[in-house]
UniProtKB/TrEMBL annotation:
The lineage of its organism: Eukaryota, Metazoa, Ecdysozoa, Arthropoda, Chelicerata. GO terms for cellular component: plasma membrane. This is Sodium/calcium exchanger membrane region domain-containing protein. Residues 99-240 form the Sodium/calcium exchanger membrane region domain. It comes from Caerostris darwini. Belongs to the Ca(2+):cation antiporter (CaCA) (TC 2.A.19) family. SLC24A subfamily. GO terms for biological process: intracellular calcium ion homeostasis. InterPro entries: K/Na/Ca-exchanger, NaCa_Exmemb, NCX_ion-bd_dom_sf. GO terms for molecular function: calcium channel activity; calcium, potassium:sodium antiporter activity. Pfam families: Na_Ca_ex.
């Protein structure tokens, strides 16, 4: 009896965690944000005192200059929050805190993905007994697209910016062109690719792009248009559930009229039957 082995079987080495390193990292994060709150509070009080002194010394004179309608103030919030340090402080070395915080976030993201996210996907794949390409197109794709999802949510509901569309389309182009090419370049073995996964994903992707361009003709997305796109994704997941059956059916339909060229009669029958057939002809 052949025992089924998980397709995403990997071996992970346990990372050595120093409690002192964890404590210092936590202390750094708390101190970073605490110092930012103190700096922001001091800047606020300084601005209030300066404005009050300016209002006492100089009266306000109304301005009647011309301006464009596009320059009118809007209710949009800033895309990024104000910096915790002034320009002078950053020039004198405060930018080092930004570099340390950025490095800390990258290392934390790598640890979470390497030791928690990918093993969880392995367990889900093993329990569901699904193939490697199906797991990559559903679970891995959902996990890899989570940053784009939250970036779009922040861009739409918090910063009121159009960064969401560029993030979605740009990440798709990046995954198709850069990720596939880099995997092929740095692969130690020859990658064996089949036409079916590429044909399947490109077909669904083309249909979704056509729908997206159609919905963007009036520069407005209605609720039913968003619901149609969401239903298309569930249709894709449902199709992936029956991926093997669909693959066999389509390959069977394509190979139905396939003609195989035979060079000699040796390929028509096995060797023992050919030997008996030759003896019968001799007698």
């Amino acid at each position: 009896m052949v025992k089924w082995k998980p397709t995403f079987k990997r071996f992970y080495r346990q990372r050595w965690r120093n409690p002192l390193l964890v404590f210092l990292s936590t202390l750094f994060v708390i101190g970073y944000f605490s110092m930012g709150q103190i700096t922001a509070l001091g800047t606020f009080f300084t601005k209030v005192l300066t404005e009050s002194d300016h209002n006492k010394t100089s009266p306000q004179i109304p301005s009647f200059t011309r301006h464009l309608m596009s320059d009118a103030p809007t209710n949009k919030t800033a895309q990024f929050p104000e910096d915790l340090f002034t320009l002078e402080e950053r020039r004198h070395g405060a930018v080092l805190f930004h570099v340390i915080g950025l490095t800390y976030m990258f290392v934390a993201l790598a640890i979470v993905c390497d030791e928690f996210f990918v093993p969880s996907l392995d367990v889900i794949t093993e329990k569901a007994a699904i193939s490697e390409d199906v797991a990559g197109a559903t679970f891995m794709a959902a996990g890899g697209s989570a940053p784009e999802l939250f970036t779009s949510i922040i861009g739409v509901f918090i910063s009121y910016d159009d960064v969401g569309i560029g993030t979605i389309v740009g990440s798709a182009v990046f995954n198709i062109l850069f990720v596939i090419s880099m995997c092929a370049i740095f692969s130690k073995t020859v990658l064996e690719l089949t036409w079916w996964p590429l044909f399947r994903d490109v077909t669904f992707y083309s249909i979704i792009l056509i729908l997206l361009m159609t919905f963007f003709q009036d520069s407005v997305i209605y609720w039913w248009e968003a619901l149609v796109l969401l239903c298309c994704y569930f249709c894709y997941v449902t199709f992936m559930k029956f991926n093997e059956h669909c693959e066999k059916f389509i390959k069977k339909m394509l190979n139905r009229n396939k003609v195989t060229r035979v060079g000699s009669s040796d390929k028509l029958m096995p060797h023992n039957k050919q030997y008996k057939f030759n003896n019968m002809l001799r007698t």
